[in-house]
Every structure is written in structure tokens, then in C-alpha cells.
Amino acid sequence: MAGEGGQKTIFFEEKYGVDIARFRSITDVDSFVEERLGRKLEVKQINSNIVSKSGNLFGIIKYDVQRKFRRMLGI
Known about the structure:
single chain
């Protein structure tokens, strides 16, 4: 049942009881899911404080490593 999409298609196929190979495009998949749900799919923006827009998990901080090193050595 699973197509070239691998593990993710297996979840879809099990949830909806269909073979992913019957769909030719993502639009076909969207239409099928909308029909099952009885409503249009909505695209929502998800905001998260964990990951920045640039994909960094933690905020980027610039350090003057030489200054920190000299301060640590007491120079």
C-alpha cells in the first residue's frame, strides 16, 4: 500500500483506508480529505517561541571570544 513517500503515506493510508497510489497530485489528496472531513482545509500560520524563522532552535548571540578569554585570565 505504501507509495514512494514512505512512512508518512502509511499513516495516511491507514487513517483513510485508501492506497496513496490512486492520487496523482497533492490537490487530489486535498480534495479527498476535504470530502471526508466535510469542509475545506485551512492553512494556518503556527507561531512558536521554540524555533526562529531562520530555523535556529536557540537565539544567536555574538560573543567577543578574545575579550572573554582575556577577562578569564585576568589580563
